[in-house]
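not sure who needs this but someone in the group chat was asking about Teicoplanin resistance protein VanJ from Kitasatospora terrestris so here u go. i didnt clean anything up, its just raw.
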Amino acid sequence: MLTPTVLLAALALAGHRRVPDLGVHLGSLWESVLPWTALLVPAVLLAAAVRRAPAPACAALVLAAVWAALFAAPLTRGAGAAGTGTGLTVVTHNVGAANPDPGATARTLLAAHPDLIALQEVTDASLPDYQRALGPELPHHVRIGTVALWSRHPLTGERRLVIDPGWSRSLRAEVRTPGGTWAVYVVHLASVRVGASGFTTGHRDRNIAALGRALDEEPLRRVVLLGDLNTAAGDRALDPLTHRLSSAQDAAGSGLGFTWPTTFPLVRADHIMTRDVVATAAWTLPATTSDHRPAAATLTP
């Protein structure tokens, strides 16, 4: 049974878009864990060696080849010009509502010398700490609900972005960069859960659909979306965004860019996405006292 199982896994990996949801979002869940199928390869090779069975070993090599076709490129790509060059450096971070040390978190973000910092889960209690730490270097600031944006360059047109009438966890602002005015979206989408009823994604998926419609109505050509999207990079649920925007990590990142959870990141839940803006580097920053790691990118018009 080992060989057919491994070959089935290779087939499901290669054709992950055809894995059905079966009413419990199975396909979406599968696409959220795709990079981790690599762990099957050494396990199967070890089992094959113990059994002296060549067939499972060959099946494992097929799985390894399929995995490499999907994921080898970012693992072999250079780190790029992280935090350097003529572009703007942007950072996004879900700082955590229960963050015990907002000041230290802010200092970690400032070490990347960013031009824009987008934060999610900013509370009334923590806002003064972030403002004291970030304000001197990034003097332009807007906070709406639990999301906030600090900028080195002037902000205009700040408003709540209504993608979920019940929550205030997204904003839109215009940043007057040296290369022109960009629309910047800071978003924190609804969480998902895995339980007896399956992979519960309905609330988040409605947020994504509404965000896609907002992007269609965006009058500015250059757009940067920063935030915690509560979904892995390969999840088909992101299609309304990936059909409209490009991922900075996919375009210019080194590695898979996992951001959650902090202690042992398993998925890239925090994203930097762009339209008519080019990413020249993308990376993750050192861990803070949040349960997410920050993500950063250098962008040029």
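also The chain has a mean pLDDT of 91. if thats useful
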